[in-house]
Structures are given as structure tokens and as C-alpha cells.
Amino acid sequence: MADEDLIARINALTAEEHRLEEAHVGEQLSDREHSRLREVERTLDQLWDLMRQRRALRDAGKDPTLATERPVGTVEGYQQ
């Protein structure tokens, strides 16, 4: 996946995340919406991790396509 495609996917998911959060300010999300929000958050964590890997590889003079998507359990455990 090219950086541009990765960024476009991140932007689309971020917009969806904001729509879900803003649509229910002061109210609870439905179970379906809450599940989707959690799925979006997890996917964003994975995509941001992939982008960071790609940048690090590029900065080290290596091929950014060597970056791999890590499992949700791995990226969810990272400290912010």
C-alpha cells in the first residue's frame, strides 16, 4: 500500500470516528455503533503503526514496503 493510500484510509476512518462520536454528544451509542467505533479505533491504531514503521524504514534508508501490519493486540498495548 502506498503512503497516499494509507493516509487516505486513515483520513476516511478518522472522519467516520468523528461522525460516530459527534452524532451522539450527550447520548450513548447503540451497541452496533459502539462496536463499529471500537473497530475503527483498532484499525486506526494498526494503520498509524504501519505508517510509523514505513517512515522509520525510509529514514533508515530501507524499503518502506518491508513494513507489516501488526496484530491489534500488539498495537493496542503501545504507550501513547
Number of strands: 0
N-to-C series of helices and strands:
HHH
Number of helices: 3
Mean pLDDT: 91
Question: What is the number of independent domains?
Answer: 1
**Oligomeric organization of the protein chains:** single chain
How far the N terminus sits from the C terminus, by CA atoms, comes to 25 Å
What is the radius of gyration?
15 Å
The biggest sheet, with number of strands, parallel, antiparallel or mixed sense and barrel status, is: none
Strand content: under 5%
Contiguous runs where pLDDT drops below 50 for at least 5 residues: none
Helix content: 55-70%
Output the structural class: mainly alpha
The outline comes out as elongated
Please tag this protein with its features:
80 residues, 66% helix, mainly alpha, elongated, 3 helices, single chain
Question: What is the secondary structure topology, with strand pairs?
Answer:
Layout: H1 3-22, H2 31-59, H3 72-75
Describe the structure.
This protein is mostly helical. It is elongated. It has helices at residues 3-22, 31-59, 72-75. 4% of the residues are buried. 66% of the residues lie in helices and 0% in strands. The chain has 3 helices and no strands. It has one domain. The mean pLDDT is 91. Helix 1 packs antiparallel against helix 2. The longest helix is centred in the middle third of the chain and has 29 residues, at 31-59.
